[in-house]
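Blinded run. Sample ID left blank on purpose so nobody reads anything into the name before looking at the predicted structure. Input follows.
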Amino acid sequence: MRRRGGRVEPSGPEAGRRPVRRAVRGLPDHAREQGAAGGARDRAHRRARRGPGRARPLHAGPVGAVREPLPGPHHQHPPLVPARLHGRQAVPPGARARRQADRRDRALRDVRPRRRADHRPGRGALLAPRLGGGPRAQGARPGEGGARARRALARGRPHPGLRQQDGRLRLNVASARRIWLFGLAAALAACAPSEPPNVLLVSVDTLRADALGAYGGPVPTPTFDRLAREGVVFEQAYAPAPSTAPSHATLLTGQEPQRHGVLRNGEALAEAATSLAEVFRAQGWRTAGFVSSFVLDPRFGWSQGFEHFDANISERGSTMRKGRAYPGAFWAAERFDGFDRRATATTDAAVRWIAGAPEPFFAFVHYFDPHAPYVPPAVFGERVAGAALPMQGRHVPGVSPEQLEKLVRQYHGEVLYTDDALAALVDAATRKSKRPTLVVVTSDHGEGLGQHDCLEHAVHLYEEQVRIPLIVHGLGDLAAGRRVATPVALADVAPTVLELAGLPGLPAPDGRSLASAARGGAEPEPRPVFGVRRLVSEQVKWDRGVKLSVRRGTWKYIWASERPHELYDLAADPAESRNALGEQPDVAGELRALLAGHIAAVPKLHDAAPLSEETREALQALGYVE
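Blinded prediction complete.
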């Protein structure tokens, strides 16, 4: 063998073969020559100094780096801290040097690192890291061991110097930047969902919590129960009002009725209010709403933010229409074709839209069937015929026990009918693609079924009229099977949905996100839950005036402008049958002050539109006005 500059040429039998270039890709010629010559010149001297035993770690620095021992145990190395731009970039153990001429580097060549003061043209830039816990690596004399180190890097071998306390490696800027960008992308991917979920928000009108099997109901409800079993159940969820419009305005805005201004059915949601659909649409979701009652007609502002809003309610299939009267306070109007739509018709409309909708989508679906009149399809009424229904303590003036039991069975038949329609809806949404689908099921209020001498709703603030189901299902990070016992409010739903979907929150919400609890975190911090009842018309002859309520812990206080106030310990008296106001005046005083403070602290931001005569007649037909 004989040496010519930076090349080693064969001699003897190997003469005439192609010369072998012992060089590291990416280094200039003079550096390769200098490093190779220096390594040959000092190899014997270093072997003599090192003596027998293991090789000392290689400390790479400038061209022609020197081998020298690093302080501290050789098996330990401190973690990297942010590097200072100083030339070629420091790399973690296991990284490989790459050709600067690699075509994939071209897009990143606009990087201009700050150069060292002793930089010489042709040496290339160097990004020198600080390795925590030790001084900066000192440069070595050119020509001492650098070539061997660079050959190891070129072959993709981990550099042993990074296993020490101190050291520096050389890597071209483009390759190092790719490593950094790859790590950043991986970190961001770990923090965010792989893709935005589809969202299905379902509101079932007039659905008591205890009508579902998952909440201890007397009749199994397969779809609701499956969603509860596979998802998260909030056991103590409350509507802000026992009527449709105020509660749905709260559901879609995250605000209390006093703030959004809708206190009665027939009042319109102000255009200034920001709805859940508006947030989703602004963030690129396709939005659609499907409603089943005249009370949620677009004329009342419910279509805000929805690209598609289906309120196709007609006489055909409606349970309330011309000439069709039914027992109780309801009677038929003469000017309107229909007031509601059956669950199957609403589901069919929603499924058709979901099938053709681009993703991600936000779909709001409202079912009306548990609302009176209770006329379930025969097959669902038969399923309830043999169920043992608890009728003790139920009474409605003018209604016989037999009639009342029949009405209760028919109500549960309507719930089963809705359960069946919900199964088809959820199946269509979740099977559309591999994209995850967040499903949230809740209600706007409950229903009196003989408790407190009442049938139907919009009258009281007792548990049967304001306690509602709340089930969250469908995302992989949810704590499946969890049951949250802390009382929560319907105003919490919108902030929760937005956080679970990874979107920004609503402006000025009264509710708070329950996403942490849904993902398995701690129980939500206990907060008071408030309620309000305002009649559509103050001219009614029964139960006039305003009612307000607050629940804190197990105590519930009800204030009424025209009736005696009430206090109940829900732990000892869940049926609210014994007024403890006289026994606990201090508790009543605290809750009354809390209620007054809440009213003062939540200013009314929006004014609802007055009722038109046509609207009043429609609501009269629905039984909300006499």
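Unblinding after everyone has recorded impressions. DSSP finds 15 helices and 19 strands in the chain.
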